[in-house]
């Protein structure tokens, strides 16, 4: 079924058991992003010190795609250098604009490649990007 | 069901129902609250206008200009009759949103001594049910003028709480702007008391009829309101055309919202005098083909009979509400009793976000609206992030409801809830 390309098992797992979904007390930047067309909202904290992403945590409400994607992004970014993290975000953005023509680089995006199918559903791309864009915003604010 | 009313026959007039949807399914269109589908008669009327009569209305001495003007004015006449309004009170706008903004900006542009002028201390009354289109224009008018925006609350079933009506509508109230039927919950608002109270303090009543006029008969004289807005595209008509209706004695005292060609009586380099309504509010060459298409849509509804349309939707809603009550893990948001409610059913599902519900339904050819429905404050009040909304119209039947219910159960299986 066409739906299965959208809702991979990995996504449903992250949706039901999201990672890093509890706002940390400390952060170098905190952002609040909303998706005005559907009302999804997240608050995301980053702790970036000496060019290293030490922690990412978040809280929010939204659909399975936005929640799973934010969970995947948070887990992926922790431990990366700021530079690597931002390159990873770009790689994911590119995957989302690929209209289903790319599978994504698993070495870079890890669980993020499970979201490749989202790029075939134009209405859902913004859901998948919510957490990543929030991270990018927070990371740039921490620079 | 009304015996003579056949959604299956009606669907034959709508080319879009021959489209194959995702999963190879037929289209089950349950999103008429956002926009309705269009029958061939409407598409033909627009095409016919462009092919045979196209010219700028009310200008030019040639045959086409004459025919275009007649077609446009005849359309106004059909709309006027539909609302039981006088023909000079019916103004074509580009949308209901523009209609409401036209009133708000007109009031805002009034001279300080005008009866329409707002100042600090004056009041504008809305309700928590409002679509953004009947909230933000008033909210912003209040900000620009210093007037105070107050609102009716709703109860847990989404009915308007009228217990403090006399506090809200007091002698400082200038405008009461209210929806006739909630686009999210389907609640039909009791107007009698509100209109009486508003008029007793000299306030005008603006009715957002976007969700009511396409679905049941509206009589502006009986409702005793002062202004009404509704859009063509939710009533089988084209996009790009809406109606602003107002009492002529008010319209002819009001400042225009948009100025330019057609809306003047005389012009010098330094001054202009406004034409009477409706021209006063129709600056520029109007959306002529769309107005003609809108009238064709109204004629289509008139042929069905608005009472039959209303009965059909009431019966279908009753059927759907019963089916919904048998589902586990699904909650109808809004009135659960099929009384003073329209053919809109909003619901939430345990463990599945509305966007995901909509996505699974789409796989079965079911088109619904998901999210906050341009009523963000209402969602906050209800303490939810959004709903999935099924809205019914003339072309829907019980089989459509059955597909909806089945696909809701499929969504539960898919998300293992």
Model description:
The complex is a heterodimer of chains A (143) and B (417). With 143 residues, chain A is an alpha+beta fold. Chain A has one domain (2-142): Sufe protein. Chain: A (Alpha-Beta Complex). Chain A is built from 6 helices and 3 strands; from the N terminus they run H-H-E-E-E-H-H-H-H. In chain A, strands 1-2-3 form a 3-stranded antiparallel beta sheet, covered by helices on one side. In chain A, strand 2 and strand 3 form a beta hairpin. The termini of chain A are far apart. The model of chain A has no long low-confidence stretch (mean pLDDT 95). By secondary structure, chain B is of the alpha/beta class. Chain B folds into 2 domains: 7-30 and 305-414, Aspartate Aminotransferase, domain 1 (Alpha-Beta Complex), CATH 3.90.1150.10; 44-302, Aspartate Aminotransferase, domain 2, CATH 3.40.640.10. Chain B has a 7-stranded mixed beta sheet with strand order 2-8-7-6-5-3-4, with helices on both faces. Chain B has a 4-stranded antiparallel beta sheet with strand order 11-12-15-14, covered by helices on one side. In chain B, strands 1-13 form a two-stranded parallel ribbon. In chain B, helix 2 runs antiparallel to helix 10. The model of chain B has no long low-confidence stretch (mean pLDDT 96). The A-B interface holds A 1-3, 6-7, 12, 37-40, 61-65, 67, 121, 124, 127 and B 22-23, 352-356, 359-360, 363, 370-372, 376, 379, 385-386, 414-416.
């Amino acid at each position: 079924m066409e739906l299965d390309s959208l809702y991979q098992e990995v996504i449903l797992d992250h949706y039901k058991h999201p990672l890093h979904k509890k706002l940390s007390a400390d952060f170098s930047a905190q952002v609040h992003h909303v998706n005005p067309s559907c009302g999804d909202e997240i608050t995301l904290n980053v702790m970036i010190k000496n060019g290293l992403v030490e922690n990412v945590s978040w809280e929010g409400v939204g659909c399975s795609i936005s929640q799973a994607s934010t969970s995947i992004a948070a887990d992926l970014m922790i431990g990366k250098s700021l530079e690597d993290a931002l390159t990873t975000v770009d790689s994911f953005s590119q995957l989302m604009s690929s209209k289903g023509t790319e599978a994504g680089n698993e070495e870079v995006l890890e669980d993020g490649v499970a979201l490749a199918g989202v790029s075939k559903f134009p209405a859902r791309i913004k859901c998948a990007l919510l957490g990543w864009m929030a991270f990018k915003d927070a990371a740039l604010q921490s620079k | 069901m009304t015996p003579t009313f056949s959604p299956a026959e009606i669907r034959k007039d709508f080319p879009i129902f021959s489209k194959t949807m995702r999963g190879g399914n037929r289209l089950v269109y349950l999103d008429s609250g956002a926009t309705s589908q269009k029958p061939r008669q409407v598409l033909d009327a627009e095409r016919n206008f462009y092919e045979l009569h196209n010219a700028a209305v009310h200008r030019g001495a040639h045959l086409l200009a004459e025919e275009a003007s007649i077609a446009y004015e005849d359309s106004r006449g059909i709309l006027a009759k539909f609302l039981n309004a006088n023909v000079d009170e019916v103004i074509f706008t580009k949308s209901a949103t523009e209609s409401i903004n036209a009133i708000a900006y007109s009031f805002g542009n009034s001279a300080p001594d005008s009866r329409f002028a707002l100042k600090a201390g004056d009041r504008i009354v809305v309700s928590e049910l409002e679509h953004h289109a009947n909230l933000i224009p008033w909210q912003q008018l209040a900000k620009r003028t210093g007037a105070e925006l107050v609102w009716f609350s709703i109860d847990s079933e989404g009915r308007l709480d009228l217990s403090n009506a006399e506090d809200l509508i007091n002698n400082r109230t200038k405008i009461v702007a209210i929806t006739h039927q909630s686009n999210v919950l389907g609640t039909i608002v009791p107007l009698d008391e509100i209109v009486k109270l508003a008029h007793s303090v000299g306030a005008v009543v603006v009715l957002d009829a976007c969700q009511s006029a396409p679905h049941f008969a509206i009589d502006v004289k009986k409702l005793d309101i002062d202004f009404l807005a509704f859009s063509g595209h939710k009533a089988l008509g084209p996009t790009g055309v809406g109606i602003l209706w107002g009492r002529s004695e008010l319209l002819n005292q009001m400042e225009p919202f948009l100025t330019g060609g057609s809306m003047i009586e005389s012009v010098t380099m330094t001054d202009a005098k406004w034409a009477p309504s409706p021209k006063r509010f129709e600056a520029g060459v109007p959306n002529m083909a769309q107005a003609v298409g809108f009238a064709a849509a109204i004629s289509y509804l008139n042929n069905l009979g608005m009472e039959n349309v209303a009965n059909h939707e009431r019966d279908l809603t009753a059927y759907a509400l019963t089916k919904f009550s048998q589902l586990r893990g699904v909650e109808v948001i809004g009135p659960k009793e099929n009384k003073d409610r329209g053919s809109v059913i909003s619901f939430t599902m345990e463990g599945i976000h509305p966007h995901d519900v909509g996505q699974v339904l789409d796989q079965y050819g079911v088109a619904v609206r998901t999210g906050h429905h341009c009523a963000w404050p209402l969602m906050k009040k209800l303490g939810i992030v959004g709903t999935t909304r099924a809205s019914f119209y003339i072309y829907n039947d019980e089989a459509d409801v059955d597909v909806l219910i089945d696909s809701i159960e499929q969504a539960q299986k898919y998300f293992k809830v």
